[in-house]
Amino acid sequence: MSLHLLDLVIIALYLIGTIAIGFYLSKRASKNLDSYFLGGKKIPWWVLGVSNASGMFDITGTMWLVSMCFVYGMKSAWLPWIWPIFNQVFLMIYLSAWLRRSNVMTGAEWLRTRFGSGRGAELCHIAVVIFAVISAIGFIAYAFKGIGKFAVIFFPWDLSPDVYAIIIFSITTLYVVKGGMYSVVFTELLQFVIMTIAAIAVGVIAMNLVSVDALNAVIPAGWKDLFFSWQLELDWRGVIDSVNDKIQDDGFTLFGFFFMMMLFKGVLSSIAGPVPNYDMQRILATKNPKEAAKMSGIVSLVMFFPRYMMVAGLTILALVYMGPEIQASNEVFDFEQILPYAIKNFIPVGLTGLLIAGLLAAFMSTYAATVNAAPAYIVNDIYKRYFKPNASQKEYIKMSYWVSTILVIIGVGVGYMITSINDIMQWIFGALFGGYAAANVLKWHWWRFNAYGYFWGMMSGLMASLALPLFFPSLQPLYAFPYLLLAGLVGSVIGTLLTAPEDDVVLMSFYEKVRPWGFWQPIKEKVIAQNPEFKPCNTLPRDAFNIVVGMTWQISLVVLPIYLVIKEFESMLMAFTVTLLTSWILKKNWYDKLEN
Fold first, then answer.
1. CA angle at residue 502 from 499 to 504, to 5 degrees?
2. Looking at domain 5-419, which of 1.25.60.10, 3.30.70.20, 1.20.1250.20, 1.20.1730.10 is its CATH number?
3. Which segments cross the bilayer (predicted)?
4. Contact assessment for residue 295 and residue 46, using Cβ atoms and an 8 Å cutoff
5. Residue 482 and residue 479: Cα distance in Å, rounded?
6. Which of 81, 97, 201, 316 is deepest in the core (most CB within 10 A)?
7. Could you read off the pLDDT of 26-38 as tens digits, one per residue?
8. Are the beta carbons of 106 and 372 closer than 8 angstroms?
């Protein structure tokens, strides 16, 4: 595709602007590690929340969402639960506040508040750093594969997807490494504004070009149904036959079973708390626990409407105008290419440039947040702690530059070896995060759980998730979750019971500061005996109710823009009513009760 000059100018101005912001903010970011990685904990909560939403508005994930919406219709609204997207609800209700009370820089550093500073704590500290680095490399490879597939459709030069990806990675890495958290957050604000304008415009264009009758003529029965039975019951024969093969390859035919596995895995992963990536970093960068909770709450509120306006818009354009061609060609079609093909064929000059700039912004947001978050673990938790504890802040910042660059190079190397966005996405969210769950659920909720249990739980879960694609390449990662969970659980329990409990002083300090609910009775009694005025947390029933309400609120925010774009106005009104009702409940039962 040969882009119009106006589109190329818009894209060039955007890229120049983001690099300029990174260099402009580099002086402020380079004061010390706290400024570089957490923005000095002075950035307003709503700015961090929008930044976090922008970081989740990634191009690779959006390509996947468009392909899923094309194939599964309204039922695709449930599929992000595989990540799980509703972990933001658990964070806003209680976990962000618990995490922020630690007042640390990284997830590895947080472990000292839970396990103290003995040999076991050193081991689990290293386990979290290893996990953070592996997950960061996985995310970089995920972004690499998506941006290359996207760029090759639009840019006029005869380059491979991987070469395009390297060029765009180089530009993004430049401003992220130079500007740190300040650069990431404030460029993400710009990126979110651009992406929102472009996304809503795509939805409006699709509504104008696609009539209800035209859409109904190219979709199978049940495509517009949000709810489902045990079987998927979505038959594309005679419409686009190859889609049935896609459904079979995805392993979603038994959709009821798949949904239960998503929910089971998603709830446990959410209770475990955020993995050590940019989401956790945004929480630790807030000013206080109350702002951490509000920051996690605003992510869902601002992200879903524009993102799903674009997803639904591009989907129905592709269905109506590309669907017959796909069926007639009788060739294997890469459904992950629907997004770039739809933009190429249906978006007008000017808006194409804005949309490509916006999607580049979405990619850069996620990628930038990952590249900024991961080096904190190596520099702060390894280099500073074990090698140069008394080095200057300037040396630590310089080391961060090198670590960021090396991680990008490794991630690009992994990206070269991957053929599918879906493969790496399923592995990250299904397998890698599955191995993380057991130890991290126990660390919050069981007083007897100790550092050795955490280390062996993390390492056994991590080894199982790394072994999965080598020994069982055809096994859907989500269906492997119970085995990964069991591996982590066995390691956690055996490691804990074969070693001594943590010191009471450490446990009492943690419990008094964080005030978690769960199996803490022996420690709770000791804290109250020492401090009779201490008030333990008794919010479990309220938190559980708010989580159910919050998950309902979140899914209504997802389906609302899809119903709008496909012109199902009666269903849209029902979704809007659910959104208003659940918002009112959360206002009364969560927001108004946040502790100052």
1. 140
2. 1.20.1730.10
3. 6-25, 45-66, 78-99, 120-144, 150-177, 189-210, 252-275, 296-322, 354-378, 399-418, 424-442, 454-472, 478-500, 544-566
4. yes
5. 7
6. 316
7. 555 455 445 444 4
8. no
